[in-house]
Amino acid sequence: MNKQRRDRLGKVFDQITEGMDVVDAVRREEEESYDNLPDSFRDGERGEEMQNYMEMLEEVSNYLDDARSVLEQI
Fold first, then answer.
1. What would the pLDDT profile of 30-49 be if each residue is shown by its tens digit?
2. How far apart are CA 60 and CA 70, in angstroms?
3. What is the pTM of this model?
4. CA 44 vs CA 19, 48, 54, 56: distances in Å
């Protein structure tokens, strides 16, 4: 692979890293909001929905991390 293509992939790596940072920040904010819910909401539909969002954001972060790992190998 030539330098130009490696440089382009390096930029993608950086963009993925930035995306991971955003996803992780949103997940932490959602966790904080969840933790601040009254027990009646946390145990109800709203709390369940928030937990699902946090799980999905964690999954996104893991996929992005996998993509970064593959790019590092290239």
1. 999 999 999 999 999 999 99
2. 16
3. 0.87
4. 31, 6, 16, 19
